[in-house]
Design goal:
alpha+beta; globular; 6 helices
Length: about 170
């Protein structure tokens, strides 16, 4: 109330994932720094915000700053489809951003594309990737560490449902 903003505060602890990398003679340890959040049911959520930010900035640069704009369009498209009853499952904002991220950079930089054609091109490529079990089984979150599908609140079928609805909603203009 008043002048205070509504915010979520989540206590997190520093998390370090250490793995052995067998490369060349001997190998070495590799460390990934992240955060761990303990939920009320006793399970842990691991996140890698620094890697997420670094990879997102790099993707924006490689796509002439079109990546983030396309993400915003997909999030608005998701809301529009939900409002119209065309999407009846919940698709988290984070999942939308990760799905757009997996699309190769050159799909964002076709010089002759307007925004509609760019979004449609990205949507069609996203659908192609998601419907290929070999490609989608190796997909990672934007941090390039955690698998996109597995222990999250969403599934590959959810993502396929979303992208099929988006492609249909975009039409063939």
């Amino acid at each position: 109330t008043g002048s205070r903003a509504e915010v979520d505060v989540v206590p997190a602890i520093q998390y370090r994932y250490v793995s052995w990398v067998s490369a060349g003679i001997g190998g070495h340890y590799q460390e990934q720094k992240g955060v761990a959040i303990l939920s009320t049911d006793g399970s842990w959520t691991l996140n890698y915000p620094d890697q997420h930010e670094t990879n997102g900035i790099a993707k924006r640069a490689r796509t002439s700053h079109r990546f983030k704009k396309v993400v915003r369009i997909f999030k608005r498209l998701r809301a529009d489809m939900s409002d119209r009853g065309l999407l009846t499952i919940s698709i988290p904002s984070f999942l939308v951003e990760c799905l757009v991220y997996i699309v190769e950079d050159h799909h964002f930089t076709v010089a002759t594309d307007d925004r509609y054609n760019r979004v449609r091109r990205v949507a069609l490529r996203m659908q192609e990737i998601l419907e290929n079990p070999l490609l989608s089984s190796t997909m990672k979150e934007i941090n390039c560490i955690k698998p996109l599908f597995g222990n999250q609140g969403w599934t590959r079928p959810d993502a396929i449902t979303f992208i099929r609805a988006a492609v249909a909603h975009l039409g063939n203009a």
